[in-house]
C-alpha cells in the first residue's frame, strides 16, 4: 500500500499519566512549558506546570487549591506577565501568577461551574482591551475586564421565566479593531448564539440539534470569517460567518467525525484553515477547509455566503477516553498538548503542516 | 451462514447480499454508494475476513471517489519511538533546538505604557431562547432573529418591506445605524509599548493573516494585513507578498514601487523581478520590463513564465512601435492574468541569494530592523530529509561550478575518452549499480592520470577530484566506508573544502561509528556552507550519539574543528602543485570570508548585533588581516554598548591601517561613551585631519567637547561642595535631565552617602530606557556596598542582576583598586539580597553571559583588588554559573 508521505502525521511524542483528572491544558506563551488544570480525587483543584525536554516531561511546579478547575486561558494576559485565568467548579474566576502560584484576581463569577473560558486582547491577539468571557451551568455568559473586580463588564443572561440552559462553550471573535468584538456561546440544547459586544445585541442564533460542546472562530483578531461548532453525536458544523443572508443566515456545512461526541475544535494558530477535532473515543482528526471559488453570490440583489469544503487530512486514536483538552503551541508550528479522561497528558507533533 | 444462504442477505447489512462480496461483482459495480456499502460490510467482518478483497474494494472506491468517507480509516496512535530512527531524531532534535531557542528569546524586555482602551460600560443582555431583540408578533422565531440582523445591515430595504414591524424595532436599531461603524482596519499596527519580540510576533502573525486572506482570494484584506506587517517590520518577504497583492488588485504603480524596494534589499530576488516585470508591462514600460525579464532568464533560463511574458512584451514593443497601442494593451492584460494565476504565494522569506553588491564596509547609519520570521515560527525542522538522495554524482558538476565561480582559469575540459567513461559511470550509478560505477570511475581516473602525465601543463586536479568524489559516492552506497574515506581525502587534498566530499566522508565515518570525526566533518561542511541541510541534520544526529556516549561534556572529546579543516594541507611532492593549491585555498578562504562578512552585514542591517559579532569573529579567524571585520565588529560592539571591546577592535584595525578613518571615528565614539573625552577628541581631530569634510566627525567633535566641558565643570562643582556644604547650583548646564541627576549625585556623594529605601526603588524603576547602564550606575554609585541588600529588598529581578553585573564591569574598566573592590562588593552584596536565589535561578542564557563576563573580569583583576580567587569562585557559585 503506497503511503502518502506528504500528508501530515500526528505523532505522540511524550506521554505522562497523572493521578488526578485532567480537564484542560494550555501552553505558556513564549516557553516550552504548559499548564494543566484538573481535579484531585478529593475534589481539590490541581494546577501543574510541565516543561518539555527532548525525551521527557518534567513537572516544574504544582499547586493544590480548594476547588477543582474546569478550564483556563492565557489569551487575556500580556506576553510579559503570562497570567493564567481559570474557571472552577464553584463558579469562581481567578487569575494566577504562575511564577509565585498566587492568584492576583478572584471573583465569584457564577453560581455554578464555569464550563468554558476564553480571552482576547492579550498575547498580541485582538485589538482593544484584554477581556475574558466565561460560560456557566447557571446559564449566564459574562465578560470580564480584570481592571474591574466586582462586576462583569457585560452579561448575557436568559430572560426571566425562561428555563436556564447549561452553557458549555464560549469564544471571542471579530476583534479586528478596538471597538468591534463578539462572543459566541454554545448551549446544551444545541443553541448557538452570537452576541455583538459593541452594540450589546444578539447578532445571530441557530440550533444544531445536539448539545454544543465547542465553538471556535478560526481567528479572533480578524473580521469574523469562519466558525466551527462541534456537538454531541459526532457532528460538527462549519459556518462561513463573513456573509450573513437576511433569511438563510450563514452558509454552513456539516461533517460527521469520531462517531461519538466531538469534544473540541482547535484551529491552528499559524493557519486558520487547518483545525483539529477531538472525539469522545479518544481520536483526533485534522481537517483543512477549502474555500469555494467565490465566497459570495448575489441572490435577488442580496449577497449570500457560499460554503467551501473540508479535506480530511489525518487522524490518530491516542486514547480510549474522551480527549477533553487540546492546545496548539503558539510558538512552534505543529506542537500541541492534549489531556484526556484516562488521566494522561500527551505532547503531540503534527508534521508537515507548512506544506498542506 | 445457513441463515444468510436462505434469505440471501449478508449479516452486516440488509442491502448487501453475499454474492456482492465478490471480486467480479465489485469490478463491475459502478454505483459508488453500493461499493461503499460493500466495503463497510467487508470491514465489519461479520461475513468473514478477506483482507485482499477489502483492499481490492478500497482500490475500486478510491478510483471512483478518492475522497470517499468510506475510505477513512482510524489510525492507531503513532509514537515517536515507532518512527524510523532518523525521523524520530529529526523530531526530537527539532523540539530540543526550539526549546533552546525559545529559552534564549525569553529575555527581559520590559514594556511600559500600552494604551489600553477603558473598561467597557457594564451592560446586561437578556437573551434566552426567546430573545428580547426579536419581535414577539412575528410568526416564526427563526426569521425574527435573522430579521434583526437584516435590520442591522439592510436598513433601507427592510423599511419598505416590513413596514408594520418597523415602529417596534426601530428604537432598538437606530442607535446602531446612527453610530458610524468603523468597519475598516487600520493599515498600521500601533506599536507603542511593544517589545521587539512582540513586534516580531505581531509582524509574523499579520503576514500569516495576509497569506490566509490571499488564499481565500480576499486581496484587499491581504493588502491590509501585509501593510500592517510591514509597518511593524519591513522584511523583503512581506513587501514582496504585498507586491503580488497589488498586482492582483491591478494597482500596478504600487506593485512596482514595492518590487523596487524588495530588489533594493535583495537584488537577486527573481520573484520580485518577475512581479516588477508584470507591473511594468501594464504600465507600458516595456523596455524596463524586458530588462527585468532578461535578468530572470539569465539566472533561470528555463523559467517558462518569464519567457512567456517576455514574448508578450516583445510583441507589444513591436506593436506599439507600429502605433497599435490600444490593441497591444488588451492582449497584454489577458496574458498577465494567465501569468499571475499561476504565480504561487510566498509564505516564507525566500532563501537569501548571495548579494551582488559587495559592501566594503557597513554604512554608519544602520537601520535597526527586526529580523524576519524566526525559525521558531517556521517549523521547518519537522520535514524529513532523505540522506542519500542528494549525494548522487549527477549533481557534482553543478556543485563544482557553483562552488568555484571565481577561479580565474576554467579547469581544462576532460579528454573525450575520460568523459565517456565518466558518463557511463554516472548512468550505472543512477540505475543503482554502484559497484560497477565505482569500477568505471577507477578506469576514468587511470585514463585521466595518464593524460595528465602526458601533458603536465594542463591542470587536471579539478577533474581528478571530481572523479574521486563520484567514486566516493559509489563506495558510500556500496558500504565500503574505508574506500569512501580514502577517496574523500584525495578530493579534500586536491580541492580543499569540498562540501560534498566532507559530507560523504562524514557519512562514512558515521557508518563506522567514528562519531567524532563524523561530527567534525559535518561541522566543517557547515562552516563552508550554512545552508546545507544534510550537514546540519548530520551534525545534530551525530552530536546526539556523542552525547549518549560521552555524556554532557562530549564536546571536550573533540579535538577541534581546525584539525579537519586544515587536514588537506598535507605535503605533496611537487612545489608547483603546492603553490597552485595554496592559491586555490586562498581563494576558498576569500570566498568564505566574503560570505561570512556579508552574513554579518545582513545581521547588522536587521539589528542582530550579537549574531553579527559572531559572523565577524569567524571571518576574522579566517582572514586576520582584513580590517573591515574589525571595524564592523567595533560598530556592533558600539551598538551593543560594549565600548571597551569596540576600542580594542578599533585599535587592532588602526594597528593594521594607521589611517583608517572608520576605526578612528568608532574608537572616538566608544571613548566618548566611556567618558574618556580626551582620547575621543584626539581621534576625532585625526579623522578631521585626514578628511576635513567629514560631517559626522564634526558633529561628534562638538558633542564630545561639550561633554568634556560639562565633566570638568561638574568636577569643580563637586570640589566646591566639599568645602561648602550648601546646595549646588549647576544652572548653566543645558540638559535638563543631566542637571537633575548630577545635582542629586553631587549632593549625595558629598552630603548624604546613604540613600533612603524608597528613593532608591523609585529612582531605579524610573530609569528609561531599561538598558541605560550608566544611569543605573549613577544611582548605585550613591549607595555604599553594605547597604545594597536592604535597599534592593525583595525586588531582586534578573534584569537587576544583569544591570549590577554591567555596572561592576564599568567599575572594572578603571583598573584602580577602589573601583575593582567596589565591583566585587556590588556583586557579592547583591547576592545577599532577598529573593536573589530565585532571580538568579531564572536568568536566561544571554543574561548569564553578562554575569559570567563580569565575574571573569573580576578574576582578571585579582591582582588589583583585595579579594582572593576563592572569593571569585564563591561568587560564581552563588550566581549559579
Question: Explain this structure to me?
Answer:
- The complex is a heterodimer of chains A (356) and B (881).
- Chain A is mostly beta strands and 356 residues long.
- Chain A contains no helices and 30 strands.
- Helix content of chain A is 0%, strand content 56%.
- Chain A is globular and about 60 Å long.
- In chain B, helix 20 packs antiparallel against helix 21 and helix 27 (575-606) runs antiparallel to helix 28 (609-622).
- Chain B starts with a helix and ends with a helix.
- The chains are: A mainly beta (356), B mainly alpha (881).
- At the A-B interface, strand 1, strand 13, strand 16, strand 17 and strand 23 of A face helix 5, strand 1, helix 6, helix 8 and helix 9 of B.
- Strand 13 (154-157) of chain A pairs parallel with strand 1 (123-126) of chain B, so a sheet runs across the interface.
- Chain B: TPR repeats lie at residues 236-269, 593-626, 627-660, 661-694.
- Chain B: Keywords: Cytoplasm, Repeat, TPR repeat.
- Chain B: Pfam families: RPAP3_C (PF13877), TPR_1 (PF00515), TPR_2 (PF07719), TPR_8 (PF13181).
C-alpha Rg of chain A, in Å? 19 Å
Number of strands of chain B: 1
Order of helices and strands of chain A: EEEEEEEEEEEEEEEEEEEEEEEEEEEEEE
Question: Structural class of chain A, please?
Answer: mainly beta
The CATH homologous superfamily of the domain at 416-562 in chain B corresponds to Tetratricopeptide repeat domain
CATH architecture of the domain at 416-562 in chain B: Alpha Horseshoe
Report on the biggest sheet of chain B: none
What oligomeric state best describes the polypeptide chains here? heterodimer
pLDDT under 50 segments of chain A (min length 5)? none
Helical fraction of chain B: 55-70%
Amino acid at each position: 500500500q503506497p503511503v502518502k508521505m506528504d500528508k501530515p502525521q500526528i505523532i505522540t511524542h511524550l506521554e505522562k499519566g497523572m493521578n488526578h483528572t485532567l480537564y484542560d491544558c494550555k501552553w505558556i506563551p513564549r516557553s516550552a512549558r504548559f499548564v494543566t488544570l484538573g481535579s484531585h480525587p478529593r475534589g481539590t483543584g490541581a494546577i501543574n506546570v510541565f516543561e518539555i525536554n527532548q525525551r521527557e516531561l518534567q513537572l516544574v511546579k504544582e499547586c493544590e487549591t480548594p476547588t477543582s478547575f474546569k478550564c483556563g486561558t492565557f489569551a487575556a494576559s500580556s506576553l510579559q506577565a503570562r497570567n493564567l485565568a481559570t474557571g472552577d467548579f464553584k463558579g469562581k474566576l481567578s487569575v494566577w501568577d504562575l511564577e509565585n502560584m498566587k492568584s492576583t484576581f478572584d471573583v465569584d463569577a457564577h453560581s455554578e461551574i464555569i464550563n468554558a473560558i476564553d480571552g482576547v486582547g492579550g498575547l498580541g491577539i485582538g485589538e482593544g482591551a484584554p477581556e475574558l468571557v466565561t460560560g456557566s451551568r447557571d446559564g449566564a455568559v459574562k465578560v470580564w475586564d480584570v481592571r474591574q473586580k466586582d462586576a462583569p463588564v457585560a452579561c448575557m443572561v436568559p430572560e426571566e421565566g425562561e428555563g436556564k440552559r447549561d452553557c458549555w462553550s464560549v469564544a471571542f471573535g471579530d476583534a479586528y479593531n478596538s471597538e468591534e468584538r463578539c462572543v459566541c456561546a454554545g448551549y446544551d440544547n444545541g443553541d448557538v448564539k452570537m452576541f455583538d459586544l459593541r452594540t450589546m445585541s444578539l447578532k445571530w442564533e441557530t440550533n444544531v440539534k445536539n448539545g454544543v460542546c465547542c465553538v471556535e472562530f478560526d481567528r479572533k483578531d480578524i473580521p469574523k470569517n469562519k466558525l466551527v461548532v462541534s456537538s454531541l453525536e459526532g457532528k460538527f458544523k462549519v459556518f462561513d460567518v463573513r456573509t450573513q443572508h437576511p433569511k438563510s443566515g450563514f452558509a454552513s456545512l456539516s461533517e460527521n467525525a469520531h462517531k461519538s461526541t466531538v469534544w473540541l475544535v482547535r484551529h491552528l494558530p499559524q493557519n486558520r484553515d487547518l483545525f483539529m477535532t477531538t472525539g469522545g473515543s479518544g481520536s483526533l482528526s485534522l481537517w483543512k477547509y477549502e474555500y469555494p471559488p467565490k465566497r459570495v453570490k448575489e441572490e435577488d440583489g442580496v449577497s449570500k455566503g457560499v460554503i467551501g469544503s473540508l479535506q480530511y487530512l489525518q487522524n490518530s486514536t491516542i486514547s480510549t477516553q474522551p480527549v477533553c483538552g487540546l492546545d496548539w503551541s503558539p510558538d512552534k508550528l505543529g506542537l500541541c498538548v492534549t489531556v484526556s479522561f484516562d488521566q494522561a497528558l500527551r505532547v503531540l507533533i503534527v508534521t508537515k503542516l507548512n506544506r498542506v | 451462514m445457513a441463515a444468510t444462504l436462505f434469505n440471501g442477505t449478508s449479516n452486516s447489512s440488509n442491502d448487501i447480499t453475499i454474492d456482492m462480496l465478490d471480486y467480479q461483482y465489485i469490478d463491475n459495480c459502478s454505483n459508488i454508494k453500493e461499493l461503499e456499502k460493500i466495503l463497510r460490510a467487508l470491514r465489519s467482518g461479520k461475513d468473514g475476513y478477506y483482507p485482499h478483497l477489502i483492499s481490492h474494494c478500497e482500490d475500486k472506491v478510491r478510483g471512483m471517489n478518492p475522497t470517499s468517507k468510506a475510505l477513512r480509516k482510524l489510525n492507531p496512535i503513532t509514537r515517536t519511538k515507532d518512527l524510523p530512527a532518523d525521523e524520530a531524531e529529526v523530531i526530537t532534535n527539532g523540539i530540543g533546538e526550539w526549546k533552546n531557542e525559545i529559552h534564549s528569546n525569553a529575555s527581559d524586555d520590559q514594556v511600559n505604557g500600552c494604551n489600553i482602551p477603558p473598561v467597557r460600560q457594564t451592560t446586561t443582555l437578556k437573551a434566552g431562547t426567546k430573545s428580547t431583540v426579536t419581535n414577539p408578533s412575528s410568526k416564526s422565531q427563526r426569521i425574527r432573529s435573522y430579521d434583526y440582523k437584516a435590520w442591522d445591515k439592510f436598513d433601507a430595504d427592510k423599511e419598505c418591506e416590513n413596514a408594520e414591524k418597523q415602529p417596534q424595532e426601530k428604537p432598538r436599531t437606530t442607535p446602531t445605524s446612527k453610530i458610524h461603524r468603523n468597519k475598516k482596519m487600520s493599515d498600521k499596527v500601533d506599536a507603542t509599548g511593544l517589545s521587539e519580540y512582540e513586534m516580531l510576533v505581531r509582524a509574523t502573525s499579520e503576514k500569516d493573516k495576509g497569506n490566509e486572506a490571499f488564499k481565500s482570494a480576499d486581496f484587499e484584506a491581504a493588502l491590509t494585513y501585509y501593510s500592517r506587517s510591514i509597518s511593524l517590520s519591513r522584511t523583503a518577504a512581506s513587501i514582496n507578498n504585498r507586491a503580488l497583492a497589488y498586482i492582483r488588485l491591478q494597482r500596478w504603480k504600487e506593485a512596482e514601487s514595492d518590487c523596487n524596494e524588495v530588489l533594493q534589499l535583495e537584488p537577486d530576488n527573481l520573484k520580485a523581478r518577475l512581479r516588477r516585470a508584470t507591473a511594468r508591462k501594464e504600465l507600458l514600460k516595456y523596455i524596463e520590463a524586458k530588462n527585468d525579464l532578461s535578468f530572470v532568464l539569465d539566472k533561470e533560463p528555463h523559467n517558462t513564465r518569464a519567457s512567456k511574458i517576455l514574448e508578450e512584451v516583445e510583441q507589444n514593443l513591436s506593436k506599439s512601435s507600429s502605433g497599435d497601442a490600444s490593441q497591444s494593451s488588451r492582449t497584454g492584460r489577458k496574458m498577465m492574468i494567465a501569468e499571475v494565476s499561476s504565480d504561487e504565494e510566498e509564505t516564507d522569506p525566500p532563501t537569501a541569494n548571495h548579494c551582488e553588491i559587495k559592501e566594503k564596509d557597513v554604512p554608519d547609519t544602520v537601520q535597526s530592523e527586526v529580523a524576519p520570521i524566526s525559525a521558531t515560527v517556521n517549523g521547518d525542522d519537522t520535514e524529513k530529509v532523505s540522506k542519500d538522495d542528494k549525494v548522487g554524482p549527477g549533481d557534482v558538476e553543478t556543485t563544482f561550478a557553483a562552488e568555484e565561480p571565481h577561479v580565474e582559469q576554467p579547469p581544462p575540459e576532460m579528454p573525450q575518452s575520460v568523459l565517456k567513461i565518466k558518463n557511463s559511470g554516472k548512468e550505472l550509478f543512477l540505475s543503482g549499480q554502484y559497484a560497477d560505477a565505482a569500477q568505471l570511475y577507477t578506469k576514468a581516473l587511470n585514463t585521466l592520470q595518464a593524460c595528465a602525465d602526458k601533458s603536465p601543463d594542463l591542470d587536471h586536479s579539478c577533474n581528478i577530484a571530481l572523479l574521486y568524489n563520484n567514486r566516493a559516492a559509489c563506495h558510500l552506497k556500496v558500504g565500503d566506508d574505508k574506500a569512501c574515506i580514502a577517496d574523500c581525502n584525495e578530493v579534500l587534498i586536491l580541492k580543499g573544502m569540498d562540501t560534498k566530499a566532507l559530507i560523504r566522508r562524514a557519512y562514512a565515518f558515521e557508518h563506522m561509528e567514528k562519531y567524532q570525526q563524523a561530527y567534525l566533518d559535518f561541522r566543517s561542511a557547515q562552516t563552508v556552507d550554512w545552508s546545507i541541510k544534510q550537514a546540519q541534520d548530520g551534525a545534530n544526529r551525530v552530536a546526539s550519539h556523542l552525547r549518549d556516549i560521552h555524556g554532557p561534556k562530549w564536546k571536550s572529546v573533540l579535538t577541534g574543528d581546525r584539525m579537519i579543516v586544515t587536514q588537506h594541507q598535507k605535503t605533496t611532492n611537487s612545489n608547483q602543485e603546492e603553490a597552485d593549491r595554496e592559491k586555490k585555498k586562498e581563494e576558498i578562504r576569500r570566498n568564505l570570508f566574503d560570505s561570512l562578512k556579508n552574513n554579518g552585514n545582513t545581521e547588522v542591517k536587521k539589528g542582530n548585533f550579537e549574531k553579527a559579532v559572531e559572523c565577524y569573529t569567524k571571518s576574522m579567524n579566517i582572514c586576520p588581516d582584513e580590517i573591515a571585520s574589525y571595524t564592523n565588529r567595533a560598530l556592533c560592539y558600539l551598538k551593543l554598548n560594549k565600548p571597551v571591546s569596540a576600542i580594542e577592535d578599533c585599535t587592532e584595525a588602526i594597528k593594521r591601517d594607521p589611517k583608517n578613518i572608520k576605526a578612528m571615528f568608532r574608537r572616538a565614539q566608544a571613548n566618548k561613551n566611556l567618558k574618556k573625552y580626551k582620547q575621543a577628541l584626539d581621534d576625532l581631530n585625526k579623522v578631521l585631519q585626514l578628511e576635513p569634510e567629514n560631517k559626522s566627525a564634526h558633529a561628534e567633535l562638538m558633542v564630545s567637547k561639550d561633554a568634556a566641558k560639562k565633566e570638568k565643570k561638574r568636577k569643580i562643582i563637586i570640589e566646591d561642595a566639599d568645602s561648602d556644604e550648601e546646595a549646588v547650583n549647576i544652572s548653566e548646564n543645558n540638559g535638563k535631565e543631566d542637571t537633575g541627576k548630577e545635582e542629586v549625585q553631587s549632593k549625595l556623594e558629598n552630603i548624604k552617602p546613604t540613600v533612603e529605601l524608597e528613593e532608591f526603588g523609585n529612582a531605579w524603576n524610573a530609569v528609561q530606557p531599561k538598558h541605560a547602564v550608566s544611569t543605573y550606575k549613577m544611582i548605585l554609585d550613591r549607595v555604599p556596598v553594605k547597604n545594597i541588600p536592604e535597599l534592593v529588598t525583595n525586588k531582586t529581578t534578573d534584569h537587576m542582576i544583569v544591570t549590577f553585573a554591567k555596572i561592576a564591569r564599568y567599575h572594572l574598566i578603571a583598573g584602580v583598586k577602589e573601583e575593582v573592590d567596589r565591583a566585587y562588593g556590588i556583586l557579592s552584596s547583591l547576592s545577599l539580597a532577598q529573593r536573589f536565589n530565585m532571580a538568579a535561578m531564572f536568568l536566561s542564557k544571554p543574561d548569564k553571559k553578562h554575569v559570567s563576563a563580569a565575574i571573569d573580569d573580576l578574576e582578571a583583576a585579582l591582582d588589583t583588588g583585595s579579594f582572593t580567587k576563592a572569593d571569585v569562585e564563591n561568587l560564581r557559585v552563588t550566581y549559579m554559573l
